[in-house]
């Protein structure tokens, strides 16, 4: 298992590229003007975009743990991934809008879909235009809600990244404090051993001094005894 600080980033990037390939294939596929197939393809594209967005979020989190010497090139790769994701999101949004307008126009041109000019309760072309405008307004409202959800998700992602970075910094501070305590403990042990050695030598010197004094006293006694005798 690769435990390098960039391994998870590389893994998420590979998953992101796989989702982008699937998205591109679905967006560029020709469904022969089959509206239902195009709708199904766009629904799958939306799911793939969500997965790709999640991969970008994970890459954004993992980049905080990459060493500074390597971080710049990974930041460039992350920025490119975000730009590519935004481009495909815009393509998907544009295709969804075109498909919705096409569906509204095709349904309005279908016989019996809307009241005709002979219908006393309908307005003919005016009624069709009103329905089309209402559908467009509904689509725009849904798009705004989607954009608001994406903005909230990005804000949550940024907050999560900040929290993770703070936790990493706190862990580094704790590790530095622990290393400092270990160094201090080692210094205290060395000082203690030095003091013990000094005390031991002091006692040895006292013993030697006492022995010398005893010998001198004994010699003095012997000399005095010899003179007196």
TrEMBL record:
> Which chain positions lie within coiled-coil regions?
24-98, 139-184
What protein am I looking at? t-SNARE coiled-coil homology domain-containing protein
Q: Which domain of life is it from?
A: Eukaryota
> Which GO MF terms are attached to this record?
SNAP receptor activity; SNARE binding
Which Gene3D superfamilies does the record cross-reference, listed alphabetically?
Answer: 1.20.5.110, t-snare proteins
Q: Where is the composition biased (Low complexity)?
A: 99-110
Record's GO cellular component terms? cytosol; endoplasmic reticulum membrane; ER to Golgi transport vesicle membrane; Golgi apparatus; late endosome membrane; SNARE complex
What organism is this sequence from?
Answer: Marasmius oreades (fairy-ring Marasmius)
Annotated TM spans: 207-226
Q: Name one GO biological process term.
A: vesicle fusion with Golgi apparatus
Where do the segments described as Disordered lie?
Answer: 99-129
SMART domains named among the record's database cross-references = t_SNARE
| Family annotation (Pfam families) | V-SNARE, V-SNARE_C
* Entry keywords, A to Z: Coiled coil, Membrane, Protein transport, Transmembrane, Transmembrane helix, Transport
Can you give the residue ranges of the T-SNARE coiled-coil homology domain?
131-198
Topological type in the membrane: Single-pass type IV membrane protein
Query: What is its subcellular localisation?
Result: Membrane
Where does this protein chiefly localize? Answer: membrane
Give the protein family: Belongs to the VTI1 family.
